[in-house]
Amino acid sequence: MNEAALFRDLSSAINPVKFAQSLGIDPDPWQRELLLSTEKRIILNCSRQSGKSTITAVLALHHALNNPRALVLVLSPSLRQSGELFKKITGFYKDLGKPIPSDTENKHTLELANKSRIVSLPGKEQTVRGFSGVSLMIIDEAAQVPDELYYSVRPMLAVSNGRLILLSTPFGSRGFFWHAWAHEKASWKTIKITAEQCPRISKEFLAEEKAALGSYWYKQEYECEFQANVSAYFDPEDIKVAMDDSVKPLLIGPDGTLDFKSFFDADVLE
Question: Contact at 8 Å (CB) between 119 and 108?
Answer without folding.
Answer: yes
